Amino acid sequence: MFKGSIVAIVTPFKQDGTVDFEKLRELVEFQIENGTDAIVACGTTGESSTLDNEEHLDVIRVVFEQAKGRVPVIAGTGSNSTAEAINLTREAKEMGVDGVLLVTPYYNKPTQEGLYRHYTAIADAVDIPQILYNVPGRTGVNLLPETVARLAPHRNIVAIKEATGSLQQASEVIALCGGQIDVFSGDDFITYPMMACGAVGVISVLANIMPKTIGDLTDAFFAGDLKKARQLHLDTLKIGNAMFIESNPIPVKTALGLMGKCSAEVRLPLCEMSAGNKAKLEAIMKEYKLI
User: Fold this and answer.
1) pLDDT tens digits, residue range 236-286?
2) Of 161, 253, 261, 278, which is the active-site residue?
3) Which of 23, 133, 261, 278 is catalytic?
4) φ/ψ bin of 124: left (φ > 0), alpha (ψ from -120 to 50), beta (otherwise)
5) The domain that contains 116 carries what CATH number?
6) Which of 177, 223, 248, 264 has the fewest CB atoms inside 10 Å of its own CB, making it the most exposed?
7) 51 domain residue, yes or no
């Protein structure tokens, strides 16, 4: 259903901390002009955790309106409250988005049975394509392959963004689910090897600043040009790693700021990048001729 290079788009803020919807529209255009296959609005890279409910829905709406059907739009509607996730998912469906991305519940650390019931409740409640999102480094809970396999037969659960950083876990998900759901890399640094194992693309942070390159990587892989895809994978490792020298999305927003695409502003409890790391990032971006 979804495939290729999908950007987890940032939410740009003005200096006063309000959402900069004009810049958000420009970022959507930048992505579409450079061949991005789909856009995730209000994922964790979009700082969904510090958007209030009205802002959250407004960001999704603006991205959807600006895309104008040219690429699919996937709304981040996950929560550590099952009821809230259902409500957000319903509202996103009413807007007309193409699918939703559902992060595992954070902080409350549900059991595997709790995770199964959480996702089943959302899938039962809202008839829309749903992508599970497993990122234990941020949420404190790991959605295990066996649980993914229990969820995979549900008709509304179509994919998983697997962001453990583990090729073993990603491979186990692919092996156990038997083609019932698609798997996306949630980590830019292993997109190529995950695709070699059967993943269908990436939900990418790096695509915020290098959309054409990440699109070229996935396109080359699907065209059977493994040499080109592998080389792009290796070529982007350094800049990809730089996107995580501080907590995401601080580095990618700093990079976009250096490129003049939007403000580097993030919301507390995140703060601006340290001077030392910013200098390192700027040097790497110059190597890549991004600035």
Assistant:
1) 999 999 999 999 999 999 999 999 999 999 999 999 999 999 999 999 999
2) 161
3) 133
4) alpha
5) 3.20.20.70
6) 223
7) yes
